[in-house]
Amino acid sequence: MPTPEEIQESFLRIEAALRDTKRLVVLTHDNPDPDSVSSAVTLAYIVKHKFKVPAVVKYGGIVGRAENRAMIRLLRLRISPLQEADFRPGVDFAMVDMQPRTGNSSFPKNRRPVIVIDHHPARRTTRADFIDIRTEYGATATILTEYLLESGLEIPSQLATALSYGISSETQDLGREARETDIQAYLALFPKSQKKLLANIVHPRLPRDYFITLNRALHHTRLYKNAVAATLGEVNNPDFVPFIADFILRCERASWAICLGRYKDRLVVSIRTTNSKGDAGNFLRRLIGKKGTAGGHGMIAGGQIPCPKLEHEECTRLEEEIIQGFLKKLGYGDVTEMTPLLVPEPIRA
Ligand SMILES: [Mn+2]
Fold first, then answer.
1. pLDDT higher than threshold 90 for residue 308
2. Ion ligand 1, residues whose Cβ is below 5 A away
3. How does DSSP assign 169-233, residue by residue?
4. How far is the CA of 140 from the centre of ligand 1 (A)?
5. Which domains are delineated in the chain?
6. Residue 232 Cα, ligand 1 centroid: separation in angstroms?
7. Which of 43, 108, 226, 260 reaches 20 to 30 Å from 82, CA-CA?
8. pLDDT digit string, tens, across residues 107-163
């Protein structure tokens, strides 16, 4: 945890990084989660009010999860889709909760952001005028909370609410990868956050599509010892993949979960583990290899495999190959059969 002096020092370096910036776009990762969204709106707020540089928040992909949509709507967060026009000359970029040249970013590979703030492992290729990467943090929102608290600015309740939801959802209510810093940040935000809105974000109304996909997921979930795997087929919302991975990991005895879903021309893959030393990010990177891209941290990871023009059967074969590889990495040889999660048993009255 940085001292107040160290944070002031960082502010000076941010100011220097923004010296020639006329307009800043703060970019989330694609299909942003609450950690990324809350971090981005907070950085934009600090840049605008502390450094007097115009700043807007943009995201790549879509905001799919009902909770995330509720968060943006109920807290009236100003965030809009990234467009080609945002890359016009004279606009600088900041990246939060991700780094340049990663698979889950729409940021052009040949451009360099002025600011990068993240909690994923640092990449050798990451360049920016100001970089703050803290892998020991459970959430990027914790880093931004520390900045906000030391900024001397007023803390709007929407930001406090967004950040506390960012931290709690990223760490599964402070139970996953959360450190003392995350807990302290959450506690500092809690008195300032709007409890009723927070509850409405955590328990949003759900579209029918959600239940349909959940039903399909449960019927396509299989178990093998401590491993659980789900294949969703086509999804119209890529956020279902990590959501189902989280959900099936809760199955008794499971300590590793994988979920696969087809979205547009990609196979989206999520890995979850209950093992705090699991290094899920590396696990998934090795599992996907050159087939696609992946990233993550200790207990959660996500990746994607581009598969344009793959026929349905070929895609199914690829999914099975990934699941076999997943089991092999867990130390299980050729597994010929996994047990369906749902036992076809008549419901007794
Ligand atoms: Mn994050």
1. no
2. 35, 97, 140
3. HHTTTTTSS--HHHHHHHHHHGGGS-HHHHHHHHS----HHHHHHHHHHHHTEEEETTEEEEEEE
4. 5
5. 4-202 (3.90.1640.10), 208-337 (3.10.310.40)
6. 24
7. 260
8. 998 899 999 999 999 999 999 999 999 999 999 999 999 999 999 999 999 999 999
